[in-house]
Amino acid sequence: MPAPTAMDTPQQRPRILIVDESRNVRTQLVQLIRDQYDFREEGDGEGGWQALVIDHSLQLVICAVSISIPLLDSDGLLARLRSSRLARLRQIPVLMVASNDEEANVRARALGASDFIASDIDASELLARIDSALRLAQAQNVLREHPERDTQHPDTGLPTRQRLEVHAAQAISYALRHESPVSILIMGFDRFDALRDEHGEDLVKELHKRFASMLFTKVRKEDSLGHYSGSDLAVVSPGTPYPACEAFANRLREAFAVANIAVHGKRLDLSVSVGVANTPVDRLNSASSLLTLAAQRLKTAQQAGGNRVVACGEKPLSQQPAPRLGHAIDLIKAGHENAVIPHLLHLSKEVLPFLELLERELKLGLPLAELRKRTLDREH
Length: 380
Description:
There is one protein chain. By secondary structure, the chain is of the alpha/beta class. The chain folds into three domains: 15-145, 3-Layer(aba) Sandwich (Rossmann fold); 161-318, Reverse transcriptase/Diguanylate cyclase domain (Alpha-Beta Plaits, 2-Layer Sandwich); 334-379, no CATH class. The protein is built from 15 helices and twelve strands. The chain has helices at residues 23-33, 45-54, 74-82, 87-90, 102-111, 123-145, 161-178, 192-199, 201-218, 242-257, 287-303, 325-333, 337-344, 352-362, 368-379; strands at residues 15-19, 38-42, 58-64, 94-97, 115-117, 182-189, 224-229, 232-238, 262-263, 266-267, 272-279, 309-310. The strands form three sheets. Strands 2-1-3-4-5 form a five-stranded parallel beta sheet, sandwiched between helices. It has a five-stranded mixed beta sheet with strand order 7-8-6-11-12. Strands 9-10 form a two-stranded antiparallel ribbon. α8 (192-199) packs across α9. The longest helix is centred in the middle third of the chain and has 23 residues, at 123-145. The N and C termini lie far apart (59 Å). This is Diguanylate cyclase. Residues 180-314 form the GGDEF domain. Residues 15-134 form the Response regulatory domain. InterPro entries: CheY-like_superfamily (IPR011006), Cyclic-di-GMP_PDE-like (IPR050706), GGDEF_dom (IPR000160), Nucleotide_cyclase (IPR029787), Rev_trsase/Diguanyl_cyclase (IPR043128), Sig_transdc_resp-reg_receiver (IPR001789).
């Protein structure tokens, strides 16, 4: 049995460094993470750098995108970390609290920021981002330090989650440098536990192998197919824009739905669901956050009855906060009109005149007729 890691041992909680000149900001972040992680605070980049050099227990950094931190700003801290002679510091995950200055965000990304979080992020999302970043860092360390270690799943021969996360990180890094899209699909059997209870573990493993084999014949050579968790499989598809990826997900779902899979002469009623995430549509720039979002959308699809694809903008409104109007407009401009209506269904009739004004002045192509109809239908 492998030795427990810091993330598996309750007595050894991962330790997070929070760097921000504002005591209030540091306090807010501490309140969000203190139940799950140990922490250390520093008020400037120089103090953060010294802490990281001395304190080997620090596993992740949260730092504001800022040019005003005294002594050493966030750009300088990132530059020192990514050019350090110590591998531990070169590879440490750094979550940046995004700035309203997009140029500052771009600089931070170019200097090696691992991920970006909003200043008003809630506890559940922040904890999920930290957990994903730590897991990715751990996977990269394992593969780097033990290249001989088996990175293939014993049942299917596909890459394990550790290897898949590394592939995803590489694809995202390349995409950001070349301003190209990356899509991620995570798919799994609907009603998996009931299927296993009724037919047994051996049959489920065999179905999993067939599912993996079918997917392997469908993906491109440049795509990465591997395990995500349990029976769920994931595809990392570099260069694939969101509409094409969603269409591909539906083709996979339909192909499996019509497959004639029988046990003892009896055809099994099987279906799969797929969660889709994409950069730039989802405005996420890290592999961990995209994988987590795709997994959340898979769960949403399964909870909604299964045999469906949940992609950008399609999460049921009861399970997500009301999206920002600016995001919906960005989706329209990017050619994703079908994703806009689910984003705007929370709008009331009182807001529609404002949208009509925007349409007259800016010619955004808002689907106003459909929105009016949907809004009236909901009221009745």
